[in-house]
Specification:
Layout: H1 3-22, H2 29-60, H3 66-92, E1 96-103, E2 106-112, E3 118-122, E4 135-137, E5 143-147, E6 150-154, E7 159-164, E8 169-170, H4 177-180
Antiparallel strand pairs: 1-2, 2-3, 3-4, 5-6, 6-7, 7-8
Helix pairs in contact: 1-2, 1-3, 2-3
Length: about 180
């Protein structure tokens, strides 16, 4: 029996669906539906492989021993359940979308974390994903404004320069500290 080969296929499909869940996609209803549908399909295929493996294993036994089939079933379904639990945990820890801002040719997103802090991300120019947070602000709702070439995050008691639109660089990445303090 090709148990190892089927186990690797199951792992591949589950890992791919796990990867799709981890990626920070841009806030688009169409894209979100496509990704979720793909994740569901990527879970249905391993269930079919599990069924096929258990059925093949049972019919290849000379003495039809039910306990071997039960062990295969428990092992494969608990293996798949581990991936499901990890995906639920990752989905719970994702940020919730607040608002998007367009400045020049850049798109910025404001998200709220599960710890109620707000983060600013920028859209990748080629892929429909957002970057890791370029700035995080504790428990104060922020809006984004531009002044000349800089992007500012403005909140209740916060006004911080976070991005240089002209150089396409994060302010914390600037080498010149004098420019940072302007």
């Amino acid at each position: 029996m090709n148990f190892l080969k089927i186990f690797v296929k199951i792992t591949g499909f589950l890992f791919f669906s796990f990867t799709l869940n981890i990626i920070a996609w841009i806030p688009s209803l169409m894209l979100e539906n496509i990704v979720n549908f793909t994740i569901i399909i990527l879970y249905i295929i391993p269930v079919f492989f599990i069924y096929k493996t258990i059925r093949t294993s049972y019919y290849q036994q000379k003495k039809k021993e039910l306990w071997k089939s039960i062990l295969y079933t428990l092992f494969l379904l608990s293996y798949m359940g581990t991936f499901v639990i990890l995906m639920i945990g990752i989905s719970y820890s994702k940020s919730s979308y607040i608002e998007s801002y367009n400045f020049d040719d850049k798109v910025f997103y404001v998200y709220q974390n599960i710890n109620l802090s707000y983060e600013v991300s920028v859209k990748d120019p080629l892929l429909p994903i957002r970057s890791i947070p370029i700035a995080t602000f504790d428990k104060t709702l922020i809006t984004l404004k531009t002044d000349k070439q800089y992007l500012y995050a403005i909140g209740k008691s916060t006004e911080e320069k976070i991005y240089d639109l002209e150089k396409n660089i994060f302010i914390k990445s600037l080498k010149n500290t004098k420019e940072n303090n302007e």
